[in-house]
């Protein structure tokens, strides 16, 4: 079976994601941390390509993680392409063609996992699963640089709109061609990149819906210091973007940001924060979170839903157990 969303024109495309959310009961669940789970299964991802390294070395682990999230109740699984970029693969000695094949593979692995899982649950008959959507992950330019700029928003003076569009263009084309249901632009740190993506979707005439999520380091603004008011003004004009929101920020920031976004946009609000643990860049390890765990996360998530978020999941350091908790409280207690 092909993609769920196959729009022939704008009328068909707009609202497709909202329809799916409606069918899922008003709130759909996104999966959780990918790299975290790959590491649990023994993958070595200490590399600038991060989880994209597994596309080369251990694709079976990627399939395994997708299946774990589907079993946990994810309505949307996000592909392993966050840090998979063509220049990144080329710098590892791969050809352009090999890099493109790996991007395609990231979508194929997720689609195959979704289809296998759906075949299995369909046989059961009485179950609470929805046929999941596959969201192709597209990390920010900063994620490719792997220098932390996805959390500072500082790309420097020589990075302009055209450079960002050029960076995103070919990967976008390859991923769209591979047939995901949605495009998930993640940890976008500034207005310039949001604008580049909105313009690119238009120029490339992309017919599947997209969401764009920003990171936030202060809980108020985009990492660049620009206000979300400014950032969303750019995105609100685009009919190709169905969702906007926040990913990979600490969960304690999310409630007030959902309230803010609700005032600033009519688009679907998407949130998938990290676990609230902090990365110690000197010791190279995660510092345990003092007050966040799966129970706390799911309690907070009901507040995010109640204030208007319609797509909710987890980012770094969240696990299938987090998603199982979300699925329980968000799907069955509204
Ligand atoms: Zn994250």
From TrEMBL:
Record's keyword annotation contains Transmembrane: no
SUPFAM superfamilies: Homocysteine S-methyltransferase
Protein name: Homocysteine S-methyltransferase family protein
GO biological process: methionine biosynthetic process; methylation; S-methylmethionine cycle
Residues making up the signal peptide according to the UniProt record: none
Co-factor requirement: Zn(2+)
Keywords carried by this UniProt record: Metal-binding, Methyltransferase, Transferase, Zinc
InterPro entries: BHMT-like, HCY_dom, HCY_dom_sf, Hcy_S-methyltransferase
Species of origin: Artemisia annua (Sweet wormwood)
Sample GO molecular function, one term: zinc ion binding
Cited PANTHER family: HOMOCYSTEINE S-METHYLTRANSFERASE 1 (PTHR46015:SF7), ZGC:172121 (PTHR46015)
Coiled coil: none
Cofactor remark from the record: Binds 1 zinc ion per subunit.
Lineage: Eukaryota, Viridiplantae, Streptophyta, Embryophyta, Tracheophyta
Sequence ranges assigned to domain Hcy-binding in this UniProt record: 16-330
């Amino acid at each position: 079976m092909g993609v769920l969303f196959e729009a022939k024109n704008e009328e068909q495309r707009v609202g497709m994601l909202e329809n799916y959310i409606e069918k899922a009961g008003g709130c759909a669940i996104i999966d959780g941390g990918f790299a975290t789970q790959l590491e649990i299964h023994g993958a070595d991802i200490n590399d600038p390509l991060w989880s994209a390294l597994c596309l080369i070395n251990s694709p079976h682990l990627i399939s395994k993680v997708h299946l774990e999230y589907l079993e946990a109740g994810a309505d949307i699984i996000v592909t392993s392409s966050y840090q998979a970029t063509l220049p990144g693969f080329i710098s590892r000695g791969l050809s352009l063609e090999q890099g493109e094949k790996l991007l395609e593979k990231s979508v194929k692995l997720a689609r195959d996992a979704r289809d296998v899982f759906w075949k299995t649950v369909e046989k059961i008959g009485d179950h609470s699963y929805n046929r999941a959507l596959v969201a192709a992950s597209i990390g920010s330019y900063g994620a490719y640089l792997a220098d932390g700029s996805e959390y500072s928003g500082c790309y420097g003076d020589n990075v302009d709109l055209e450079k960002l569009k050029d960076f995103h263009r070919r990967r976008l084309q390859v991923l769209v061609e591979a047939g995901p249901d949605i495009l998930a632009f993640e940890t976008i740190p500034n207005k310039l990149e949001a604008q580049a993506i909105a313009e690119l979707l238009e120029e490339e005439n992309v017919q599947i819906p997209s969401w764009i999520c920003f990171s936030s380091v202060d809980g108020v603004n985009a990492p660049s210091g620009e206000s979300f008011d400014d950032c969303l003004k750019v995105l609100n004009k685009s009919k190709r973007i169905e969702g906007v929101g926040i990913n990979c920020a600490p969960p304690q920031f999310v409630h007030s940001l959902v309230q803010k976004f609700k005032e600033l946009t009519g688009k679907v609000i998407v949130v998938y924060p990290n676990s609230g643990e902090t990365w110690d860049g000197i010791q190279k390890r995660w510092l345990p979170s003092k007050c966040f765990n799966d129970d706390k996360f799911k309690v907070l998530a009901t507040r995010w839903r109640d204030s208007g978020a319609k797509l909710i999941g987890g980012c770094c350091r969240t696990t299938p157990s987090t998603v199982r908790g979300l699925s329980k409280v968000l799907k069955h207690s509204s």
